[in-house]
Amino acid sequence: MGDRKNMAYMGSTLVYGRGKAVVVATGMDTEMGKIANAITLAEDGKTPLEIKLEQLSKILTKLVIGVCVVIFGYNIAMHFISGSSAPLYDVALNSFITAIALAVAAIPEGLVAVMTIVLSIGVTNMSKKNAIIRKMNAVETLGCTQIICSDKTGTLTQNVMTVVDHYAEDEKLLATAMALCTNAEVEEDGKSTGEPDEVALINYAKTLELKKSDLVAEKPRVGEVPFDSGRKMMSTVHTYNGKFIQYTKGAPDEILKKCTKALVGGQVVALTEDIISKISAENTRMGNKALRVFAVAYKEYTSEPSAYDSDTLEKEMIFIGLTGMIDPVRPEVKDAIVECRNAGITPIMITGDHINTAKAIARELGILTDDSQALMGSDIDKYSDEEFEKIVENIFVYARVQPEHKTRIVNAWRAKGYVTAMTGDGVNDAPSIKSADIGVGMGITGTDVTKNVADMVLTDDNFATIVSAVGEGRRIYDNIRKAIQFLLGSNLSEVVSIFFATIMSFTILKAPHLLFINLVTDSIPALALGLEKPEANIMNRKPRSKDDGIFSGGLGIDCAYQGILVSILTVAAFYIGEFLELFNAAGQNLAVAMENFRFTGIEDSSEGMTMAFFTMAMCEIFHSFNMRSQRSSSVAMVFKGHHNNVLYLAMLASFLLTTAVVEIDFLSNLFGFAHLDLTAYLISLGLAFLIIPIVEIIKFIQRRLAKN
Q: CA triplet 666, 669, 670: central angle to 5 degrees?
């Protein structure tokens, strides 16, 4: 469609001229209508995290129901097996309460709050880095992005045409002629306005200390032959020292046809075949670099021309030289592309520009290494969807694309199982942006339609911002996993502890105790874990697969052993508390205490229950420190200056609240706790602290095994 020359489209703006048109399509049959239809048909998919959390919810639901049924059935069965005289109603009620306590223990009540707050903070952080997140759950999807399909103009490049090459013996004369033969202007604030190509020419003159305002004052314009696509040139006439001088700029081939002389060695000489060959060679050289080339010539008059038209002016001119311009790449994009490669992300360039221009920019950025990796949009039409999917992994540059091509490219990558991001600014980009896993709209040049269907909007239209957002997405997902591991490990410890106590016929913790642990000593540190800074290697590892489950990467095993470890410490605290209670009741007679001590069928031990509660709560607080990294040493992170002050405050707050519940009489009585003397308090604290060195040792072993 970019090569059509005789069509006008709904939504276009006519800026000058007049004409007559034949309507060939209306409504949904127009190109704009096709885009609207494509947007309607594009489906919104769930993010990988949403899918995994739904799976986790199903697992937890089945676990809770299963555990409740097993415990309830076990207690009823034991009632009949033991021949107990207790009423069945009382046994069933107690069994039901125990089952409810287990359900409370198994469900991480704070997970939804933690997820929402962590994602919200991530959205805020991204907004400070020029990335506006419109759909909160899209934050974590960025973390597993594997493909970034990016538009060229304005995203990879500066969207400012710039003269980067020239051919002329007198560069100042070249720049002067180019600047005067334009309709671009310089505003009072110094900014240039007009056609991008012409703005580039007056900015080029400015680099040589030739301001257009000064040039115009010195050589005011008296006539003009406007640019015409048929002639491919424009001419302006200026007065200077009582004479008249004409400048004509346009396509090199067309300008040469109108020239009979050239400026060589400071002299005006005849335009020979040798000179023409040199000019043509320079034109070809610049063209091979994908530069947009302009030629300029001049002609002098002793009196004002008789007419200002092409036939009168544009002949027998003197050739001055050539300028080559291009929309240069953003300087920060090269580093961003390297970072993409290191992070296992493949950048794809999609543009409506000519394929040679696209190849040149892609080579400069390191996106393209071979011409076979580039494809024209018209070539895509030659393949069926199945055939295109087979080659899509080998194509990194697309030129002269139409809207439906962009959507096919995105869908092909997604069909191959890749998490794909797509950028765009125009209305025609909307369908592909909506189809992508992450749709990225441009905040500066983007249309409202594009922004409305995008998941993320860049306020600086910069590719490097996308890469930065990917890093933030990875950090957020890592932190969510840390919070999930911490919460599930904590809940598992509660389930195992209560299950063990039920089997051994004693009560270790009650439902209110479990709720306090879940909502205070679990949730507060879990929120702080969501603010953990990115780990050092976060952008030097491959993106996670969207098929990876919540428990991938050994997280399930970590949850299991850490939960069991906390349970062991908690049960140990209960038995120590029971023994201390017997020891004090026997007047601190060790023999009597040992004789009365039991492992099963214990009557409610308030001190044992209190020590178990305090130990479990403190275990969770200390264990949150372990969760700063799944594999790296948390202690080493501190010595390296990698701190999370919010976590430290959360640990302190949880510690003070837990101590208050145990030691303040009013609160202690509400929870049915016994007062802990200094010995019991320190024993519980010491048992809980063991979670740090034990987990550190296991992490060390895991790192050595992974390295081997």
A: 90
Tell me the CATH number at 501.
1.20.1110.10
How confident is the model over 247-276, as pLDDT tens digits? 999 999 999 999 999 999 889 999 999 999
Q: Which of 326, 341, 376 is the last residue of a domain?
A: 326
Residue 212, domain CATH: 3.40.1110.10
pLDDT given at position 135: 78
Nearest CA among 373, 621, 623, 642 for reference residue 534:
642
Neighbours of 257 (CB within 10 A): 11
Write phi, then psi, for 276 (nearest 5 degrees). -60, -40
Q: What is the pLDDT of residues 130-179, one digit of tens each?
A: 999 887 767 778 888 999 999 888 888 888 899 999 999 899 999 999 99
Please report how many Cα atoms fall inside a 13 Å half-sphere around the Cα of residue 658, on the Cβ side. 34
Give per-residue pLDDT as tens, 269-307: 999 999 999 999 999 999 888 889 999 999 999 999 989
Candidates 29, 44, 151, 189; catalytic one: 151
DSSP classification of residue 234 = E
Q: Rounded to whole angstroms, how far apart are CA atoms 323 and 171?
A: 10
Q: Which of 208-222, 586-600, 613-627 has the lowest mean pLDDT?
A: 586-600
This model's pTM is above 0.85: no
Claim to verify: residue 490 and residue 397 sit in the same structural domain: no
Domain residue limits at 401: 138-157+330-461
Q: Are 427 and 32 in contact (CB under 8 A)?
A: yes
CA-CA-CA-CA torsion sign (116, 118, 120, 122): negative
Which are the contacts of 45, defined by CB distance < 8 A and separation ≥ 6? 437
Q: Look at residue 39 and tell me if it is in a domain.
A: no
For residues 107 and 188, membership in a common domain is answered with no
Same domain for 318 and 337, yes or no, is no
Query: Which CATH number do you get for residue 445?
Result: 3.40.50.1000
**How many independent structural domains does the chain possess?**
3
DSSP 518: I
Long-range interactions of 387-394: CB distance < 8 A, separation 24+: 388/412, 389/415, 389/416, 392/416
User: pLDDT tens-digit profile of 44-61?
Assistant: 556 666 677 777 778 878
- List C-alpha distances in Å: 621 to 295, 517, 655, 681: 73, 10, 7, 15
Contact partners, residue 383, CB within 8 Å, separation at least 6: 391
Residues 194 and 304 in one domain: yes
CA distance 516 to 654: 10
Active-site annotation holds for 90: no
